[in-house]
Write a structure and sequence with these properties.
6-stranded mixed sheet; 5-stranded mixed sheet; 13 strands
Length: about 300
Amino acid sequence: MDTANRIIALDIGGTHTRVALICSARTLPPNRTVYLVDSFPTSTEYDAEIERIVTVTRAARGQAEARGARIEGLGISIGGRMRADGSRLAVAPNLPGYVDRPLVSDLSERSGLPARAAHDTVCGLLGERGWGALASSERCAYLTMSTGLGAAIYLASWGQSTGLHVSIEMGHQILDGSARACLCGQIGCLETYVGGRQLELRHGAPLDSFHDATVWETLSDKLALGLVNLTQLTRVEVVAVGGGVALARTELLSELQVRVDARLRNARLRIVPAALGEHAPLVGAAALLTTDPGTILS
C-alpha cells in the first residue's frame, strides 16, 4: 500500500458488510485502488454492527497511518433510504433494527472521523458516474440486484455539469395482479420476484444455487417490466447493473435487454454491467465526502 491519503469506505448491506481503504485522489481506475480490509455478515442488531465496524475501522486506520497515510474521513453506503438530513435511516426493510438510529453520529464520534452516509444505490451511482460505466451520462441509473432490488437515478439538464442523484424504491413498485406479500409490508412488489432474500425465503435456497429455468425467466420478465416503467417515468437512457444476484448469472443482462427492447416504445434503454462490479458502492461511498449534499435526494 502506498502513502496516499485514504478514505475508509463502508458498504453495509442486508447480508454482508465490507470495509475498504480507498485513495482520496479523484483519479480513474485502475489507479483509484480499493483495498478491501474486511468483510463480515451484517448483524441484525444495530449496536453489535456498530461495535464490529468501529473495531475494524480503528485497526484499518492504525495500519494506514503507520505507513504514512492520512485518513480523511468515513464514507458509508447502506442498504436503506436515508432521512433528508442524511443522519439516519428512514426506511430499510432488510435492516429494520437500524431505522431511526443515529448511524452517522455514532460512527463519526466513535471513529473520530468526519462521516457521510447515503443509500447504497446512490453510492453505486456516484461510483459508476465518476469512474465506471456511466461516466459523462446526463440521464442514467444504477441498479443493484442483491438482498433486495434498489436503484438510483441521475438527471441533469443538457449541458449542465451538475445534476441530481435520486434514490428510488425500484423494488417496491407494484405489479398489477400480483398477490405476493413483500417484506416492506406492501402487496405485489417487484422485489418479491427478484430480491435475493425474498426468493431464498420462498424457495428455501440461495439464488445462486437455482437451476430452475422458470425462476430465472420469471425474474427476467418481471424486472424487464420494472425497467420499462423506470425508463418511461424518468427518461433515463442507460442503466448500470451491479449486485450479487446480477453477478450470479452472466447472461442475465442480455436477456433483460431483449425483453426491454420488446416492450419499450418511443424510448431506448441501454443495459450495461457495472464497470466497478461489487466495488461501485464502496467507491461511491468514498466520493460522498467530496460530493455536494445538495445534489443528493435520498
